[in-house]
Structures are given as structure tokens and as C-alpha cells.
Amino acid sequence: MSTCRRVAHGLTELREGELSFFERLGLRAHMTICPSCRRYVGQVDATIEGLGHCKETLSEDESQALVERLKQRRR
User: Fold this and answer.
1) Helix (H, G, I), strand (E, B), or coil: what is residue 25?
2) Residue 62's pLDDT band (cuts 50, 70, 90)
3) CB-CB contact of 38 with 11 (8 Å)
4) CA 71 centroid distance within chain
5) What percent of the chain has pLDDT over 90?
6) How far apart, in whole angstroms, are the C-alpha atoms of residue 31 and residue 26?
7) Collapsed DSSP state (helix, strand, coil) of residue 71
8) How confident is the model at residue 31 (pLDDT cuts 50, 70, 90)?
9) What is the largest CA-CA distance in the chain?
10) pTM score, two decimals?
């Protein structure tokens, strides 16, 4: 798997501290030299920040349904 794909698929794990030291090091090194991955991470950060400003709250069922849909799209 290319490193760009690893960044895209491993970003959540990276942010949640679920990657090993060497996995983190590899992804961060790649992001240092890859403007596309830096842009992608910036877009994800902007999306997360924007969602934090939403005033609507989802029910537990709606939240779970959203999580499942996102997981399906990721595959």
C-alpha cells in the first residue's frame, strides 16, 4: 500500500494514538515531504473543526448509523 494511502487510512489511528512509534514516524515523515497528504490532513482538520460548531445533536441511533455509513465508504 502506498504511503499516501496509509496516511488516508491511518489518520484516525494516528490522531487517537493507536499507531506504534515507527508507524507514527513513517506517516509523519511522509507528510513532511508530501504536499497532497498535508492538504488532505488540513481538510480533515477543517471538517472536524466545522463539525464542532454544529448546534444539532444526533440521537445515539443516528450517530451509530452515521458511523456505519462512514465505515462502509472507507472500505
Assistant:
1) helix
2) confident
3) no
4) 12
5) 27
6) 9
7) helix
8) very high
9) 41
10) 0.62
